[in-house]
Amino acid sequence: MKLILLGPPGAGKGTQCKRIADRYEIAHLSSGDILRAQRAAGTELGQKAQKYMDSGGLVPDDIIIGMMIDAMKKAAAGYVLDGFPRTVVQAEELDKALAEASEEITGIVNLQVPDDLILDRLTGRRSCPQCGAVYHIQNLKPRAEGICDRDAQTLVQRPDDKPEVVADRLKAYHEQTAAVVSYYEGRGKSVIIIDAADDIEQVTASIFSKLDVLCSRVG
Ligand code: AP5
Q: Which residues line ligand 1 (CB under 6 A)?
């Protein structure tokens, strides 16, 4: 299966993509995680992306597109894209790359959440710097406060989860990313809409019920 998960910052894309990747045995390709790994490794790409990420803006398309298409080529068993495409130009380039490889996206899922829930989700998020597991100080607590369940690392807050940066990320979403849904609908692609304001388990159940149907069709 080749899936795209769309939605605003804090919609739960990372949380749900990890579960989707486990259930359907496909790769979770998160543009944000790949960029953060490049930054941590001090690569040229990571250094170029840094100022855009820290300010809550989008990293330029020319940096992102090659990076994500390379990752997709390595994911032979299929993938779920998290955070890509995020502009209409990225969606167009993704379509071109898929057409060149005679491939198609199996399904597109859009997580819908009102803006007023997002600030609380993002400012309360804590992540493991070692394994990338994501928690929330109220909605998804680790067993021991501030410590990752998987590897006992101390959890950290992402620098772009500060309230002032979250506001800019939401602005970038409405100005540049929301149009990606219309792009796909305008090309006759069906977009599965999920109410992601529900609790995490309910959102997972809604997504799985739709994707199980798609999965049985592609075999
Ligand atoms: P990225 O890392 O992709 O960030 P994002 O899209 O802003 O998404 P988030 O990771 O913040 O949220 P999420 O939807 O994954 O939510 P999560 O599951 O963690 O991008 C970071 C930056 O990189 C961008 O700002 C940009 O600069 C750059 N970038 C990345 N891709 C790019 C691209 N294609 N083009 C250009 N630039 C790009 O959940 C959030 C919190 O809420 C967690 O604590 C979780 O526990 C909790 N939660 C989740 N679901 C629920 C629920 N249903 N109920 C209650 N709490 C919930």
A: 7, 9-15, 31-32, 35, 52-53, 56-59, 64, 83-84, 86, 90, 121-122, 124-125, 134-136, 139-140, 160, 169, 196, 198-200, 203
